[in-house]
Amino acid sequence: MAVVEKVKELEKVVSSEFKEYKRKPVADPGLDETVKKLTPEKIEKVINAVLNMRKSAATFAAPLETCIHCALCSGACHWYLSHDKDPTYAPVAKVRMTLWEMIKRKGKVSPEFMKQCARIVFCECNLCRRCSMYCPFGIDIAFQLGMVRRICFLLGLVPQILMDYDNSLSATLTQLWINQADWIDTLQWQEEEVRSEIKNARIPVDKEGAEIMYVVLGTEPKLAPQFIANMAKIMNYAGIDWTFSTADYANQSMFARDAETMQRIVREVYEDALRLKVKRIVTTECGHALHGLGYAAPPLLGWKEGPIEFLHATEFYYELLTTGKIKIDKNKRIKGPVTLQDPCNLVRHRGAGEKLRYLIREMCEDFVDMYPNREHNFCCNAGGGEIAIGPPWKRVRLEGARAKAEQIKATGAKIICAPCHNCHVGIHDVVKFYNIDAEVKFMWDILLETMEIPEEFKVG
Amino acid sequence: MYDFFTNLSIYNFVRGPLVWVAFIVFIGGSIYKIRSLILLAKKQKVVFPYLSLKYSLRSLLHWLIPFNSRNWRLRPVIAIVTFLFHIGLVFTPIFLLSHNILWHESWGISWWTPSEGLADIMTLIVISACIFFLLRRIFASEVRFVTFADDYLILAIAFLPFITGFLAYHQWLLPHKIMVILHMIFGSLMLIAIPFTRLGHMFYFFLTRAYMGSDFGYRHSKDF
User: Fold this and answer.
1) ipTM, 2 decimals?
2) How far apart are CA A215 and CA A248, in angstroms?
3) Fewer CB in 10 Å around end: N or C, chain B?
4) Å from B100 to nearest chain A CA?
5) pTM for this one?
6) CA distance B106 to B152
7) Does 3.40.50 match the CATH number of domain A330-450?
């Protein structure tokens, strides 16, 4: 027994800075190898460069002078709740172990300290802003942790897989090193697939003057072409004048706080839309890139908001359904209990909660809401780059999702609707890890199952 | 020591110039701090375009009314203590009878004042809330982890004027004259400290809250 305990003790990384901070080691070359190349001088230079620039920013200065260290944000964090209220997982503790310490020591910190910072901000925080919402002062804690990510990024201390996404985006503006020929080829292949179901279906690419431009994540043409077919079916059934864009709007650079690449990604999407003279942009069922497109990048590009209206896929379905362009077949409505994962970027950061509930209630007979829900919902624990840091951190990620798992279990739902790529993958893993008997679906899956298919589209 | 504190010139200094200095530093310092933060925000360019009066007020109201935001509902004990503490902290000194008399003697102005019994209860609430916060800092692990020496310091700054005022009123522990002088020194200290310590959250609360409220409002969401 004693031996087992000793081994267990050895397995934990006990921080030399904070004795309460105990974690199991995780091998990630992005952190382990980069940290070897860092020198204290380089670290000091980067930290002070960022902090000095930020000193003149009110959104950075005010919180530091306001925070009364009350730790009332702690209960907002699913990491904290999932780890039996371990104080080192509390949002304010994360700021305390990173930013406050950097300020206190005027940037004179060791490479090991920086590695620990990188682990805290990249691997134990989703930047879901639930804590910002629970702070009595309205301090944007997630913003401060984002700043630590920025410092880590400038030092190259980014989990390797996330860094690879960022490299791919900065070199090719696609998240997975996709070339355009592959992209277009996949679209044509999917058009053929859809044509086997819908007469004369089209996936128009770069069509000038279309009403709507549809943008997706690079992962769809690369790894999940059936997602493209799903949206193409909905567009064709609804008779929308649309065009597919070959701009990848995935924004992992935003997770890494590579602000420069983040702007380029978003600018490419808007430029594509302006070139094609479309009226609106509809995005795939994805949350993070919506935040990048609509809120994170525009101020950096010098706009209050983007030049063209944009809609999330679910907001677009809501419009189609309420204007009668598509109809739900009452006989096909889903019987079993269905619950909804409110994606942070779509609900807490965009207020689409009611629209999602309208859709689900139209399509499903037995809708059970999670508790807490809407703005107060817990993050799926895959967002904010947690899924993008990849397999090495999977266990850490899933252990941090216990609060989410309990929330899902309590609904007793057999289907979980997660209208966001990150949520979808994240919840899928949570369901498997915690042995929950439920299936995860996108909103388009449920919509295609339940919608009325007009006769004229039927093939043969 | 006794002679030093009961010396009339000490009393006159504390009662006169020190209070003047305290009020000038408090008001001047606060205006300076608020003004410089607003100027910083203007320079930052991404703050003011998103600010909205409607959403700022919505957010402030929800957080200033007990149990009107989810975090207050989740933590009823802390909510009650916090609200009572702040009400006592701000309103007792303004409306207290003895302070009113001082204003009347100096400037001939006075206003509504609560009964001495009520004022006593409010003072006791502030004192016990301070002890509650202290215990929370020591025993709640999540608070202890983010507690520094200056957290105890600002708690003491808030605590001392009230405990000395309470003891002076009841003429306990130390001779009345000494206690009153200590009370006035600590009171002045608190006023001076507000703009230059994190006690400044007294003003910054409204600014940070307005920013967050507007941000969530702009996103058609809510932050309470």
Assistant:
1) 0.90
2) 7
3) N
4) 31
5) 0.92
6) 35
7) yes
